[in-house]
Design goal:
With 446 residues, the chain is of the alpha/beta class. It contains twelve helices and 22 strands.
């Protein structure tokens, strides 16, 4: 039996950050990370294996990220957790005793067992394993027509990448619009227009009723009776927390099956922490349970857990997720952080919305310049920023991170109108019309 100070189970975004942060914070502690797969994919890079990289090997997280900081990597599956005895059994026959354990076992795709024909051949979910994805790359190559089920960001990113390979793509989403969980309606419309302009057929407000075919899927039947002929189906219907190990060990789970944690990522069991997709998520603003699973949230939680493993160093550091997120669909980048206008109103916030549109270089006639459209959502009485949504070029990928910090720090419209920026014609919008300052001013004048 092996003994270690810290054991981390899971080797993706959450697990890697938990192990390496722990090693940096507690230099003298021995840290072991157990991962069940030989290699690990950059999870957010998975769609880009298909239309851009064309090779799973180019989407690997190097193991040196774990071993260089001094953590030990063991490739094996954790099959049993004895929380009382502080003991984890591995599929290779070994067991490891720990002082502190971090569960970072992630999530698995939803398999729609409630839809007849879900188990036909050529219907694929998005598993994160390299072997599975390498096989999927080969299987997708000869297909001409593909139905993507689910218009969330995984479905949309796959649709975009598969279209770049020249496939005929039909995207099916049961809600009124694609990307509704992340964006307000007018931004979803821009995203849908961009998908359509690039030849993707979108069916919204309908569910898949049935997959049909002999051995392999050949058609997808929709709830409105429409039948889509297809060579294959890609499922992007969301993910569920992978918490079998925790459940069997008696840890408390929430209604979705996620491991319940406090602000320090401590579970209901002594000395066990949980981070990332397997841990429950709370809304930053309302404290309500919020199943938004993002790598950026996983890494934040991992850092909070790791720093607090052997004593509380941060006070209530994980205040909940603000769902900071960005994606790129053909030529348009979309980004959001915090609460959108639609959800803010549903939750009962009295809000003021500030908007501004400008070019991301100055003058806007410079080569490579892209239009930015920014929307900021403030609480009316306090002027505090609670949400931001942007459409633009690649430059908005970092702009949303400024706004994410502003939301977390509770900055007001006045502060955002006057905050000082670094500007340069070739790399930013004009200081006379810096979009965050200007959208904040727009809100102030309302
Ligand atoms: C296609 C796709 C695109 C995405 N794009 C984005 C994006 O652009 N931005 C963003 O923020 N998020 C994105 N996400 C979400 C993001 O990938 C997840 O939030 C993130 O991977 C969560 O990390 P995690 O470490 O919690 O879990 P996971 O990535 O699921 O990793 C879990 C790890 O645990 C291991 N494991 C599980 N059980 C065991 C066991 N019993 N023993 C040993 N090892 C075990 C697995 O092998 C794996 O290494 C995307 C997700 C997908 C699927």
């Amino acid at each position: 039996m092996k003994k270690t100070d810290v054991l981390v189970i899971g080797g993706s975004a959450g697990g890697i950050l938990a192990a390496t942060t722990c090693k940096k914070v507690y230099k003298d502690k021995e840290v072991v990370l157990v991962r069940k797969t030989n290699t690990v994919m950059v999870p957010c890079g998975i769609p880009y294996i298909f239309g851009t990289l064309n090779d799973t090997g180019k989407n690997r997280i190097p193991d040196t990220m774990i071993t260089n900081p001094g953590c030990e990597l063991i490739i094996s599956e954790a099959i049993k957790l004895d929380a009382e005895a502080h003991l984890v059994s591995l599929s290779n026959g070994d067991s490891i005793q720990y002082d502190k354990l971090v569960l970072a076992t992630g999530s698995n795709p939803i398999i729609p067992k409630f839809i007849p024909g879900y188990d036909l051949g050529s219907i694929y979910a998005v598993y994160k394993s390299e072997d599975y994805l390498a096989d999927l790359l080969v299987k997708i190559a000869p297909m001409k027509d593909i139905v993507v089920v689910g218009g969330g960001f995984i479905g949309v990113e796959f649709a975009e990448q598969l279209r770049k390979l020249g496939k005929n793509i039909t995207l099916v989403e049961m809600q009124d619009q694609c990307l509704q969980q992340a964006f307000d309606n007018e931004i979803c419309s821009v995203a849908e227009d961009e998908l359509k302009a690039n030849g993707i057929v979108i069916k919204t407000g309908v569910k898949v009723a049935k997959f049909s075919g002999e051995k392999f899927v050949t058609a997808v039947e929709l709830s409105n009776g429409e039948i889509l002929k297809t060579d294959g189906v890609l499922l992007g219907m969301g993910v569920v927390p992978n918490t079998l190990l925790a459940n069997e060990a008696g840890l408390r789970l929430d209604q979705r099956g996620a491991i319940m944690v406090d602000e320090y990522m401590r579970t209901s069991a002594k000395d066990i922490f949980a981070v990332g997709d397997c841990a429950d998520k709370k809304c930053f603003f309302t404290g309500k349970s919020m199943p938004v699973l993002l790598a950026s949230t996983a890494t934040m939680e991992a850092k909070v857990a790791a720093a607090n493993l052997f004593g509380l160093r941060y006070i209530r550091e994980n205040r909940g997720t603000i769902s900071a997120f960005s994606t790129k669909i053909f030529s348009k980048t979309l980004a959001s952080a915090g609460i959108g206008e639609r959800r803010a109103l549903e939750e009962g916030f009295e809000i003021v919305v500030g908007k501004f549109a400008t070019m991301d270089k100055h003058p806007g006639s410079l080569p490579g310049s892209a239009k930015i459209e920014l929307k900021l959502i403030f609480v009316k009485t306090s002027g505090v920023l609670i949400g931001a949504q942007i459409i633009g070029g690649e430059s908005i990928g970092e702009m949303i991170n400024i706004l994410s910090l502003a939301i977390q720090k509770g900055l007001t419209a006045n502060e955002l109108n006057t905050f000082q920026t670094a500007t340069h014609p070739l790399v930013t919008a004009s200081p006379i019309a810096y979009p965050i300052n200007a959208a904040a001013l727009d809100a102030l004048t309302k």
